[in-house]
């Protein structure tokens, strides 16, 4: 409970108790007053008609390169968020690469509108983003305290401008992926860390912001954006497996990767796949197992950080009026189609975990809406009652979160990847309940999830799918330039594939 609420409750309780002593001759009135006194003592008195409803807090925990199925190995997050909130079982990162995904999260826009198409190059990195077009300003201007700690957009450095909407700004600037040797902006006092584990530092800073903000009369927004389980990159440019915190080393030794059970793992024939998969050699299972083990061990500290964050909110009396969001900037392939990584339009790279807990959300619920990261800024603004200050491309998930099981939703979603050269675009396409289709103008793919859920057969040149392909291309052509409501249309049914010719 906030400080002002505690003070008001105490004062009113004294008045109510005194009033009770003077009305004993009127039994009914006394009963009513006693009930009101009990409610006040318990902090549950209904607000008056003239009292403004309390605005909720927002806490957003983001991981980096986390697969959807990695969530199965985070028991604290499962218990405190999944079991106590709503899990979106078909959530994707529609531009599955770090910087474009994060740009979507801070603008509520696709890359054609926010300008960030890749991690680097003229169309990529923090330099491609207009720092004034950053959604934290929506909350700041509505009276929220705001705090960011962790990894922002790729390429953000110690001399870059601080986005204006953050009350506290503690972003990684150097050694972003090193885990133990890194620098942060320190909210105006740059700080170098040597030997500290990055997840623990982000955890501590996020908890400190919550404690400080909870002592005020204002609601708050706190973002804790972690580095795990992204692979490690040293300041010298070396690349290695993500290091775990000391207590987590060896936790998942001999753990069988989930990708080993996917029929697409080390796919035998990739000759029909798009170019980014077509020439890959088979992966070495022992290397995939080592990477999977390291990733899961690195996520254990994030799991504990979620636990301490929830505990801090509880200790400060803020948990019951705080929405907690947990997700990842993109998924990650571990040997499916012979590929390890992201920045491809396959299911493993697109799918991300997405869980939301908070007031009005029924515990242990799920939704299969085809949601994306682009929807989160619209959702958080809606839950907080703040107004976006520019056109956003996502749809608020608040109706579904708050119990509307019949929320109308788009039936076709834009998915895309960029490149560093040329116009900055690579493959761009659309995703529906049944199909994923994309092309870079020359190299195309079409998967039919109804008969091929593992995306092992590219049917883009199959004559039976000509009508489907043409209809999806029509949608793609419009959606690659979409903005606002045009990105969220209900197009209606697609044609069925032609039947197999009879023998």
TrEMBL record:
Native organism: Nocardioides hwasunensis
Alphabetical list of Gene3D superfamilies matching this protein: Alkaline Phosphatase, subunit A
Disulfide bond found in the keyword field: no
Full protein name: Sulfatase
Any one Pfam family match given in the protein's UniProt record, by short name: Sulfatase
Domain Sulfatase N-terminal residue range list: 56-386
Keywords assigned by UniProt, alphabetized: Glycoprotein, Hydrolase, Signal
InterPro entries: Alkaline_phosphatase_core_sf, Sulfatase_CS, Sulfatase_N
Region (Disordered): 235-265
Record PROSITE patterns: SULFATASE_1
Family of the protein in this entry: Belongs to the sulfatase family.
Secretion signal, residue range per the UniProt entry: 1-27
Keyword Hydrolase: yes
Highest taxon of the lineage: Bacteria
